[in-house]
UniProtKB/TrEMBL annotation:
Pfam families: Porphobil_deam, Porphobil_deamC. GO terms for cellular component: cytoplasm. InterPro entries: HemC, Porphobilin_deaminase_cofac_BS, Porphobilin_deaminase_N, Porphobilinogen_deaminase_C, Porphobilinogen_deaminase_C_sf. This is Hydroxymethylbilane synthase. It catalyses: 4 porphobilinogen + H2O = hydroxymethylbilane + 4 NH4(+). Tetrapolymerization of the monopyrrole PBG into the hydroxymethylbilane pre-uroporphyrinogen in several discrete steps. It comes from Filimonas effusa. Residues 228-301 form the Porphobilinogen deaminase C-terminal domain. Residues 5-215 form the Porphobilinogen deaminase N-terminal domain. It is an enzyme of class 2 (transferase). Keywords: Porphyrin biosynthesis, Transferase. The keyword Transferase applies. Pathway: Porphyrin-containing compound metabolism; protoporphyrin-IX biosynthesis; coproporphyrinogen-III from 5-aminolevulinate: step 2/4.
Length: 317
């Protein structure tokens, strides 16, 4: 392409890092591009996206509007923030190779015994842990029902500073976000027991559905395995009627010829939990492989997940 592609991004350090990665990968294929920084102040909402089934897209709406008004050619998102039903007129253009999908605890002082030497039968003193994610909150309270959860919002740097300035025991972050901008503290530990958000650790590029030239450029960055795994995870989330405000987790991983999937849903207080695991070999019918997330969600719905979903909806109304 002769004209440089305009890459839309939010202006946080992490968002710029991700957009720059896309820019570098495009350059490796001889495609020039430039970054366009979009602030979420509503001044560019010339074409309000029409979202399906009420999805808000809180972290993507402003960039969607910039795309639809042709101010930018493509937008770069943390894939877990992208609604499972995108705005009308916008389509996925590429899914980059996934980084770490894990959550981690950034802690203060010595690592608490409740974390370092966890025993479900032990009577540890309650901790105060910060997170704005109800998925993380629900899983934490399921494992540690006596602990206190504080709300923590802001970009990565703001949240790290809030932890440093607080009297909390720690806070939960996505490993990929901290590691990408080289801000992971030494006092941190991966929460191997915590199932991640659908598509956590993956980056998605989106563009207008009628922009074939940009689509052809972006497909050069596409990672097939990551796209398959995250699609399965998001199908699980969609089938359970989930979004950012539901404690639903999903993870699909590929090891050689085997795809393994685990998904769960919890009540808001963490007391109820339904989980399912499935495996399928990659030489199976592709339709069966792609359907594994929806099939797992349907199984949980038959086991009572619909009641948990209904309770969550009532709590938010």
């Amino acid at each position: 392409m002769n004209q440089a592609l305009k890459i839309g991004t939010r202006d946080s350090e992490l968002a710029v890092w991700q957009a720059t990665l896309v820019q570098q990968q495009l350059a490796a294929h001889g495609i020039s591009s430039e970054l366009v920084f979009i602030k979420s102040d509503g001044d560019i909402d010339l074409v309000t996206p029409l979202y399906e089934i009420g999805v808000q897209g809180i972290f993507t709406k402003t960039l969607d509007a910039a795309l639809l008004s042709k101010r930018i050619d493509l937008a770069v998102h943390s894939m877990k923030d992208v609604p499972t039903q995108p705005a009308k007129g916008i389509v996925p253009a590429a899914v980059l190779k996934r980084a770490s999908y894990k959550d981690l605890l950034v802690y203060k002082g010595e690592l608490p015994n409740a974390i370092a030497h966890y025993n479900a039968q032990a009577n540890y003193p309650p901790l105060t842990i910060a997170t704005s994610s109800i998925r993380r909150k629900a899983q934490w309270l399921h494992r540690y029902p006596g602990h206190n959860i504080e709300n923590l919002r802001g970009n990565v740097n703001t949240r790290l500073q809030k932890v440093a300035d607080s009297n909390w025991n720690g806070a939960i972050f996505a490993a990929a976000g901290l590691e990408r901008i080289e801000k992971r503290p030494e006092q941190s530990i991966e929460l191997d027991w915590m199932l991640p958000a659908a598509a956590q650790g993956a980056i998605m590029v989106v563009c207008r559905e009628d922009d074939n030239a940009t689509l052809e450029s972006c497909v050069l960055l596409h990672d097939t395995n990551t796209a398959l795994c995250t699609r399965i995870e998001r199908d699980f989330l969609r089938t359970l009627f989930g979004g950012c405000s539901t404690p639903i987790s999903a993870l699909a991983v590929i090891d050689k010829n085997l795809l393994s999937f685990t998904g769960n849903i919890l009540s808001l207080n963490g007391q109820q939990k339904l989980e399912i695991s499935e495996e399928i070999e990659l030489d199976n019918d592709p339709a069966l492989i792609e359907a594994i997330g929806k099939k797992a969600a349907d199984t949980l719905l038959a086991r009572g997940a619909d009641k948990i979903v209904e309770e969550i909806r009532h709590a938010g109304s």
